Amino acid sequence: xxxxxxxxxxxxxxxxxxxxxxxxxxxxxxxxxxxxxxxxxxxxxxxxxxxxxxxxxxxxxxxxxxxxxxxxxxxxxxxxxxxxxxxxxxxxxxxxxxxxxxxxxxxxxxxxxxxxxxxxxxxxxxxxxxxxxxxxxxxxxxxxxxxxxxxxxxxxxxxxxxxxxxxxxxxxxxxxxxxxxxxxxxxxxxxxxxxxxxxxxxxxxxxxxxxxxxxxxxxxxxxxxxxxxxxxxxxxxxxxxxxxxxxxxxxxxxxxxxxxxxxxxxxxxxxxxxxxxxxxxxxxxxxxxxxxxxxxxxxxxxxxxxxxxxxxxxxxxxxxxxxxxxxxxxxxxxxxxxxxxxxxxxxxxxxxxxxxxxxxxxxxxxxxxx
Length: 370
What we know:
The protein is of the alpha/beta class.
């Protein structure tokens, strides 16, 4: 989660039932990672794109869920197909990789990402699309949908590969998206094929060799620590001189971000700009927005259901159920509706139960509500 008064150190506070959320005891190297923002912005290339709006009445199921989870009306959310060409005339260019130089490859990914935007969101649709497009395509492919929603504070979370951005958290800051996408790379097993990197013995062994963690927020737990080291390693890869050019004490966290780097390289240069789409999370299904009599009337005039299928040559990433926003809501007082126990809807024992029957009646014709 991102809270403006705390800076980037508070970006996306995560609590996952599948990961131990114990706070880490190593001191932070710095208060936050705000000092990495300029280098990331200058060296993660902007990407040409085109986008087209879905027909009225349709929304991606996951976007609908995320809006309604915040008590917002899904009818106020527009859904867009965004195609990035991942070709930039100013790229490829030389960059730092452990003292060597590399050139990126151009890529072309034909399948669109489904992007959702609430009409009252403080972040514009253009900013949402542009900053998301700066993510290396091999990172971006582990994100299903992104959505911008309104709120009185800037924060974000990742739910099963969907990234929700609140208020003006984007603010031309690719570090926020990198952190959130870092959760996908970790928890969707991009770094390791059989488990999350953050819960692996390999990660713990390398963490134990360092004296610090990157910043205050990385102290939250190992899930957040991996996500912050994903930001650090991306900076190290794309900025001339690497992380050492801005942090003389880089060795204090070297084993952590070097482990992220090793795993991202073994998985196909996940954090390196360029390349081509090799796999994608399948899109959530298009669903009717619904919500009242007027919407039901509009449903009769719905345009053709959007096609969200992926190309046959793109491998499907296995989805996983996680939600990094729940501790955030509890800790910072956000209005996310927490998942409680299943409601009890049983009737009293002294009430006779009427057997249900299956029938349907039409609405009363020719009348308007006053």
